[in-house]
Design a protein that fits this description.
Residues 91-192 form the GS beta-grasp domain. By secondary structure, the protein is α+β, with helices and mostly antiparallel strands. 46% of the residues lie in helices and 15% in strands.
């Protein structure tokens, strides 16, 4: 019986022996994370050891854009990485890339090659390991079998993966003690169109670098010994990754989790997150063991995981890295998700990255902490102790505000998906209105500059004057030290919040690749920074460097232009939605409506002008996103229909029969049968209504199958299928509360939450 399967699975999960992992020991002690960090990465340090100095010099010049890679250099690097990886057990190599499906892809090729020689008139074939520069530089997967949005068809199958030289190669464990060499790559079509997420991220980073360097050259004096001018800049990213862990055996009994990644049925248990006791609580032993093993593997891959903790919802957790250069950070985030998935299986757990796997409790996001740094070690979003006179910071800040104001709908499109729709706007994630939170004190700095008055250092909470760079809090306990208070508070309701020296793009979905949202953010900021640069040049006239007066004029101009995008309050309230409408800020509630913003003239023109996307690439992405939305919803609907007709309704029928037989038996022996009859009367209309709503969903799905055009199909999924699914779920969840537990076929939320 279904209940027996659930019970046996729960008992098995509680009696299973824990997995033990032997961490490396050196000189009688466990090695620290710093000692093993990056040991599986073919880093610049490793390359410098294994390559001839002239070859290594050529490669580093190529990394800086000083030259293209010639064949001898590629061959030398290929030989070195082959020797390095084979020494570590590698038998295969793969070009690892990011197709347009929020995941990664890989095709394994063996180093094995057959060499034929001739001696004494005989042919002899010998097996050898080879890896050439041409094999390193590119490979050729089938471009018609990945999402392309119409840019590729079945008879146009040729595509290329090309080594991304800025992302280091690494090895990962393979089967039976072997390993595999991974070559981070971009994926392009035969005609050069980007068929992946990384190509456009690289393009957006290039334009961001170029525009930011121009900006710095306009406002900073030429080189001197004490203050050298920046020669390079780069965007930085830290991606906080939220996820759920559940028992893998219980997961196998839930068709919805296996197919859709979320529960399509299930009611909340009496206790879930309302006591607020899970967040930052003690990490369950089994989960801690799994995350610890993940951290160990990720450290060997050079991924700097810094924090781990319980998140708000039961069975929800988070890991977060140290900030890195954006392109590397994206690679590392995708590696983190992959390692979490693999290690969870070893611990008989299943990791869920869906933004809302359980209805009624918090969902998961991927908070992208974004900033920009120079090769001199400066963070351009560091406000310093006196932000009111830090004109470089203020100019860069207002450029970001202008980018978000002009292209907020584009940023909303970048985080849109059928799965993230379940999370956005709920009371753990920002709504569909893109706004910027700066914090009261930084907001005061901008207001004071706009109004031409001194900054008021006033702290409403403590009724005393304070410096804008923060305050010291007296905890009124002699044994406790005073602590420094940050410049700004944190606003967890804001989709784009300043958090001290970076912006936190909170609306990105947990199972989404960060590439596309960050690409759009880079592009929007670069475009706005070009406007700031133009305004500076106009104000400067014939001067080579802008004066403080010039900078202040431009800062004030852009503060006025961007005031509408700044909001310091609660983004969840109806009052904010009304206020945002007055300000002209779009409120895009559903993904299908957001996708079209990518092709909106001002957005498309900006992305094409910067060279980040071609028009064909933009159209393809809208097509892919829209198609994926429609497929996700219809797959969920078909799964729900199957579960209700094959599991939920049969359980309800059987329980009705047992109640009826019990009532009849009671009556026959003269015992009051009112309790059974009352429960039967409560159950029967629910069962009948569930039958009717299930038929409604089936009819809508039959109607959807007749729709041939993509956009009407997606709108139909959004406006017709999802409401029908909600109606079916509501009734099924009510039945879960009434049907005898021994007959209910699906693991319940109580079991899913607690058996880890």
């Amino acid at each position: 019986m279904a209940h027996e399967a659930r019970l046996n699975t729960v008992v098995e999960s509680l009696t299973r022996a824990p997995r033990n992992v032997q961490f490396p020991v050196k000189n009688g002690r466990l090695q620290s994370i710093s000692e093993i960090f990056g040991e599986n990465v073919f880093s610049l340090k490793e390359m410098s050891k294994m390559l001839p100095k002239p070859v290594f010099k050529k490669f580093t010049e190529q990394l800086k854009g000083g030259r293209s890679m010639d064949k001898p250099t590629a061959d030398a690097i290929a030989h070195a990485v082959k020797v390095w990886s084979i020494e570590r057990g590698a038998t295969h190599f793969t070009h690892w890339f990011q197709p347009l499906n929020d995941s990664t892809a890989e095709k394994h090729d063996a180093f094995l090659t057959m060499k034929t020689s001739y001696a004494n008139g005989f042919e002899e074939t010998t097996a050898i390991d080879t890896f050439s520069g041409s094999q390193l530089l590119q490979s050729e997967p089938d471009a018609s079998s990945f999402p392309s949005g119409g840019m590729r068809t079945t008879f146009e199958a040729r595509g290329y993966t090309v080594w991304d030289t800025k992302s280091p190669m690494f090895i990962q464990d393979g089967p039976h003690g072997t390993s595999i060499l991974y070559i981070p790559s971009v994926f392009i079509s035969y005609n050069g169109e980007a068929l992946d997420e990384k190509s456009v991220l690289l393009r957006s980073s290039e334009i961001m670098i170029k525009t930011t360097l121009e900006f710095l050259n306009l406002i900073e004096p030429a080189d001197d010994e004490d203050h050298p001018r920046a020669k390079h800049v780069y965007t930085t990213l830290g991606t906080e990754q939220e996820f759920f862990f559940i028992d893998r055996a219980l997961y196998t009994l839930r068709p919805d989790l296996k197919i859709a990644g979320r529960t399509l049925l299930g009611g909340l248990p009496p206790r879930h997150q309302q006591l607020e006791d899970h967040y930052f609580g003690k990490i369950p032993t089994r989960v801690l063991a799994a995350i610890s093993e993940c951290e160990f593997e990720l450290a060997r891959l050079g991924v700097p995981i810094k924090t781990r903790h319980n998140e708000v919802a039961p069975a929800q957790f988070e890991v977060a890295p140290i900030f890195e250069e954006s392109m590397l950070s994206v690679d590392h985030n995708l590696l983190t998700m992959d390692v979490l998935h693999r290690v969870a299986h070893r611990h008989k757990l299943k990791v869920l990255f869906h933004e809302k796997p359980f209805r009624g409790v918090n969902g998961s996001g991927k908070h992208c902490n974004w900033s920009c740094a120079t090769d001199q070690g400066d963070n351009l979003l560091d406000p310093s102790a006196t932000p009111e006179t830090n004109y470089r910071f203020l100019l860069f800040l207002v450029a970001i505000l202008k980018g978000v104001l002009d292209h907020g709908d584009l940023l909303r499109a970048g985080i849109a998906s059928a799965s993230n729709d379940h999370r956005l706007g709920a009371h753990e994630a920002p709504p569909g209105i893109i706004s910027v939170f700066l914090g009261s004190q930084l907001d005061e700095v901008l207001n004071a500059i706009e109004e031409g008055r001194p900054v008021t250092n006033y702290d409403d909470a403590h009724m005393k004057n304070v410096r804008v760079d923060g305050t010291v809090l007296d905890l009124k306990v002699a044994a406790l030290p005073s602590i420094a208070r940050d410049l700004t508070d944190r606003n967890r309701t804001s989709p784009f919040a300043f958090t001290g020296n970076k912006f936190e793009f909170r609306a990105v979905g947990s199972k989404q690749s960060p590439s596309f949202p960050v690409t759009l953010l880079n592009s929007a900021v670069a475009s706005a920074l070009q406007e700031v640069n133009a305004a500076l040049k106009k104000q400067m006239g014939k001067k080579s460097v802008a004066s403080d007066a010039d900078k202040l004029v431009v800062i004030r101009e852009f503060i006025k232009k961007t005031k509408a995008i700044r909001f310091e309050g609660d983004n969840y309230t109806d009052a904010w939605a009304a206020e945002a409408a007055k300000r002209g800020l779009p409120n895009i509630r559903k993904s299908v409506d957001a996708f079209g913003c990518i092709l909106k003239k001002e957005n498309a023109d900006m992305l094409k002008r910067l060279g980040v996307f071609s028009h064909a690439e933009l159209e393809s992405r809208v097509h892919i996103l829209t198609e994926k939305y429609a497929k996700d919803v219809t797959i969920e609907a078909q799964t729900l229909l199957t579960m209700v007709t094959q599991q939920v309704l049969p359980a309800a029928y059987q329980y009705r029969r047992e109640l009826a037989e019990s009532a009849s038996a009671m009556k026959n022996i003269g015992v009051e049968s009112t309790p059974e009859i009352e429960l039967l009367n409560e159950l029967t209309p629910l069962v009948r209504n569930l039958q009717l709503r299930t038929n409604d969903l089936k009819n809508v799905m039959d109607e959807m199958l007749k729709v041939e055009e993509l956009l009407p199909l997606a709108h139909g999924a959004q406006k017709k299928v999802i409401p029908c699914m909600d109606a079916v779920r509501s009734l099924a969840d009510q039945l879960e509360c009434l049907v005898s537990d021994k007959l209910w076929p699906l693991p319940k939320y109580t079991e899913l939450f607690l058996n880890i």
